[in-house]
Design a protein that fits this description.
single chain; about 260 residues; alpha+beta; Creatine Amidinohydrolase; 5-stranded antiparallel β-sheet; 4-stranded antiparallel β-sheet; 4 helices; about 30% helix; about 25% strand; globular; binds 2-amino-4-trifluoromethylsulfanyl-butyric acid; binds cobalt (II) ion
């Protein structure tokens, strides 16, 4: 299903987006060498509940997972890239962390993810990986607007990722979002311009470029959720929820 939000629900989407962006910023500030992924999860639960919001993850049980996710934030470290399930792991200097968060506030969801390196010793290849996903996201946002087609966004994202030298995996990508976290249309991280659903004001999209340094192949952890690079190489993932407006696109998941 594709939802088009009216003015009132778009206002609420702005509040949800600012909350998601704010929580991710707080988590990033607290993510230091020595922090355990389970602590990050507990902090997230608290931040969501204090805001009167609800987690989109804790009860989430899609066909590909193994029962409900049971946690509040996805924590993907180094070779883990998507759906990273928080577990008993202490962060070390130089770890590349992705935090992915989706919540619902007053009936409207927002979804965002950030990747960054913990501590002082960031490898330049890791920063390049993160930078490629951030630039791909910016290109996808720049291509979005009324009358653009999904393929225009996919093409913009995919061009940045492949020009940066990465192979693209098309199994997971962006998506429509609204009263629930995952809706149509799907937004592949590569595609052909001029193809696909034509965007309209009031549509919310979560755009989420992700890459792995030297492979496009994923493997799943024993937890049934965490997806890692098949080669053990490092990975990055950056995501924003945007709203299509009358004259372009508005990024919702920024801290106020
Ligand atoms: N937020 C992720 C996405 O961008 C979905 C995470 S699902 C979870 O689509 F169950 F792993 F939390
Ligand atoms: Co998403």
């Amino acid at each position: 299903m594709i939802e088009i939000l009216d003015h009132d629900r778009l206002e609420r989407a702005r509040d949800t987006g600012a909350l998601v962006g704010g929580i991710l910023q707080t988590l990033k500030e607290r993510t230091a060498v020595g922090v355990n992924l389970l602590e990050l999860d507990r902090w997230t639960k608290r931040l969501i509940e204090d805001a009167g919001a609800e987690s989109c993850y804790v009860d989430y049980a899609p066909s590909f997972g193994r029962g409900p996710f049971g946690h509040y934030v996805c924590t993907a470290v180094n070779d883990a890239v998507l759906h990273g399930m928080p577990h008993d792991r202490v962060l070390r200097d130089g770890d590349l962390v992705t935090l992915d968060l989706a919540v619902t506030l007053r009936g409207v969801a927002a979804d965002a993810a950030i990747s960054f390196v913990v501590g002082e010793r960031a490898a330049s290849e890791d920063l390049a990986l993160i930078d490629a996903t951030e630039r791909a996201l910016a290109a996808g946002i720049a291509a979005a607007g009324p009358d653009a087609r999904i393929g225009d966004l996919s093409h913009a994202i995919g061009t940045v990722l492949s020009d940066a030298g990465y192979e693209i995996n098309l199994e997971f990508g962006g998506h429509g979002i609204g009263s629930t976290m995952h809706q149509d249309p799907h937004v592949a991280n590569d595609g052909r311009p001029g193809r696909g659903y034509r965007l309209r004001p009031g549509l919310l999209l979560a755009l989420e470029p992700w890459v792995m340094a030297d492979t496009a192949e994923l493997v799943t952890d024993a937890d049934g959720w965490t997806l890692r690079s098949a080669t053990g190489c490092r990975t990055a993932h950056t995501e924003h929820t945007i709203a299509i407006t009358d004259d372009g696109a508005e990024v919702l998941t920024l801290a106020r």
